[in-house]
Amino acid sequence: MRIAFFVNSIEGETPTYTTTGLALAALSRGHDICYLTPGDFVLRADDSLSVRGRTLPSKRYKKAESLHAALQGEEAAIETMDVGDIDVVFLRNDPSLDADTRPWAAHVGAMFGRLAAARGVVVVNDPDGLSLAQNKLYFQEFPPAVRPETLISKSIDEIRGFLEAHPKGAIMKPLQGSGGKNVFKIGSPDETNLNQIFEAVSGEGYLIAQNYLPAATEGDIRLFLMNGRPLERDGKYAAIRRVPAKGEVRSNIHASGTAVAVEITPEILAIAETVRPKLVEDGMFLVGLDIVGDKILEINVFTPGGLNIMHDLYEVDFAETVIEALENKVALRDAYAGAIANRMLATL
């Protein structure tokens, strides 16, 4: 089969990205791959949908670095193909990276992914589901039992009131964003730099304030779910603990956090089970949960990362399990001749 990975840009990809690991696993299993970016779709007058995909030779690369070098180099070729020649479109872009500089590109994947699904392509995560999750407001649709207490506002008076009600402090961050950008811990409403922080974060739109969880000093747990359930292979869970750097509130790897192995407890599995029904309903095939204590801080549905780190920590190729799941979806699509909706197929 042919898998198309939709990303923000080719030059922005790295050997350590989860997308690279997924592409490597797909090639190792004998599949064709290509990469798509926001400007690569063409909807013609006859209603046919084509893409200009960056393709790689169908060979087995031993290392992610080799695959990445080929993608960026002369081995890659641009091929125009009908979308029907693609079996799976894997939407792996981060809309927040394009929101400021290329707002037209932020949601192109979901827009054209919907058209591809209507033409029989398996699209994951489901584009209609992703349209519901364009910012962190989506998180508020999950049960309160697994969420920190949260305020969403553009009013500094509301923020101050929330801080007064939470003497242990709060985390403040933009409603739209990723990678730990503009995330601050506020100790009290009397902090002298609160106005400056508010101005910096509110410039990106609405703010989220969440009650601070003391367990966050130990970092958070990134747990992958696939088809609504914890991703496992060889008796290992696809999970890491991300430990923040000294003096840092963010545990994101991009913010100098470090990753260590973690034991997944029944309590963590119970949290995952609580969010499973909605993720399945929304067609969220591959998801990353960020968990602190008994709460989820974020649900990453666009481009969750970390599978490469988990591979190194546990010597388990979780990416191969993900590709196996896609093979099963294509087989079901063919067996049912399009009778199963993409949103359902995405999590079967």
Automatic annotation (TrEMBL):
GO CC annotations on file: cytoplasm
Similarity comment: Belongs to the prokaryotic GSH synthase family.
Keyword line: ATP-binding, Glutathione biosynthesis, Ligase, Magnesium, Manganese, Metal-binding, Nucleotide-binding
Top-rank EC class of the record's enzyme: ligase
Reaction(s) catalysed by this chain's protein: gamma-L-glutamyl-L-cysteine + glycine + ATP = glutathione + ADP + phosphate + H(+)
Alphabetized GO MF terms: ATP binding; glutathione synthase activity; metal ion binding
This protein's encoding gene: gshB
Protein name: Glutathione synthetase
The keyword Transcription appears for this protein: no
Classification of source organism: Bacteria, Pseudomonadati, Pseudomonadota, Alphaproteobacteria, Hyphomicrobiales
SUPFAM superfamilies: Glutathione synthetase ATP-binding domain-like, PreATP-grasp domain
Domain ATP-grasp, first and last residues per copy: 136-327
HAMAP family (alphabetical): GSH_S
Pathway field: Sulfur metabolism; glutathione biosynthesis; glutathione from L-cysteine and L-glutamate: step 2/2
Matches recorded under InterPro entries: ATP-grasp (IPR011761), ATP_grasp_subdomain_1 (IPR013815), Glut_synth_pro (IPR006284), GSHS_ATP-bd (IPR004218), GSHS_N (IPR004215), PreATP-grasp_dom_sf (IPR016185)
Pfam family, one: GSH-S_N
Cell cycle among keywords: no
Superkingdom, taxonomy of origin: Bacteria
EC numbers, comma separated: 6.3.2.3
Cofactor(s) annotated in UniProt: Mn(2+); Mg(2+)
